[in-house]
Amino acid sequence: MTPPPSSPLPVTHRFIDEVGDTTFFGKGGVTILGQEGVSMAFGMGLVRIDRPLAEVRAEITALQKQVETDPLLYPLPSVAKRMAKGGFFFHACKDTPDVRTIFLHYLRELPCEIEVVMARKVPSIFVQKHHGKDDEFYADVLSHLIKSRLREPQRLVLNVAQRGSSTRAKVLDEALIKAVGRAGRLWQPDELQSKVVFNVQTPLTEPLLSVADYLAWAVQRVFEMGDMRYYNYLREKIRLVVDLYDASGSNHYDPITHPLTAGNKMGPPTT
Predict the structure, then answer these.
(1) Which of 4, 129, 159, 207 is 20 to 30 A from 99 in CA distance terms?
(2) What is the number of structural domains in the chain?
(3) Which has the closest alpha carbon to 13: 38, 58, 50, 42?
């Protein structure tokens, strides 16, 4: 007797964007962390949106059009530049305060949550653990972000913001292999039932990536500058922050029992 066909796996979408950069060294192999344009940490955030995605996508698209047609906003260089390259999209670190306020107000009312992994850029770890390779560093951070999501019986579509060579299929597959290995130390292999699909996107093709961008940026501001303003405004949306290479033993933060503070600002780089 032919067994009945199995039910298709439910499809789950999550949205991933990064903050900071993966640069460690300048000319001559000198560490340049914290210098202008070089971050002290590299982070990735994964967002869950608890409303129909098509509705939220349409709302964000409408907000983008609002900026494009506002005579006070569209002449701004940061807006005009994006419009000239295909269309405006919200991008936290490049948006001016008046543009940023539009999207921050929207996010505060949007039912969503983010989990963020912040990886302190420690040169010795980068050289020894990641062999001084940006792609290995990226894959390792991504693996920590997705390892806990592999148990559910689901087709997990990870919509990832495009990032040069880091989002090549080879790098993403390596991140998944690492995630499965880490998850395998927590659960039995037959408990890992998710089928993961990577979908590399840009904010122009997937406006929902701007949600991940802004929420992760609010966390980054704390680590890089000790700036609490945006984190506090969006705090209830930031379910978990993992300070990956903080050896203090208190590196998991939630908005209620253990929130981030200005004390999470990173100091001078260590080796």
Answers:
(1) 159
(2) 1
(3) 50
The residue segments making up the domain with residue 157 are 11-262
The residues facing 196 across adjacent strands are: 156
**What residues have CB less than 8 Å from 72, skipping those under 6 apart?**
98
Give a yes or no: residue 3 inside a domain.
no
Q: Tell whether 162 is covered by a domain.
A: yes
- pLDDT of residue 136 exceeding 80: yes
In-domain check, residue 156: yes
Instruction: Using DSSP bridges, classify how beta strands 155-161 and 11-19 pair: parallel, antiparallel or unpaired.
Output: parallel
Backbone φ and ψ of 89, nearest 5°: -145, 155
What's the pTM? 0.94
Residue 124 gets which letter from DSSP? H
Residue 95 pLDDT greater than 90, yes or no? yes
In a domain, 269, yes or no: no
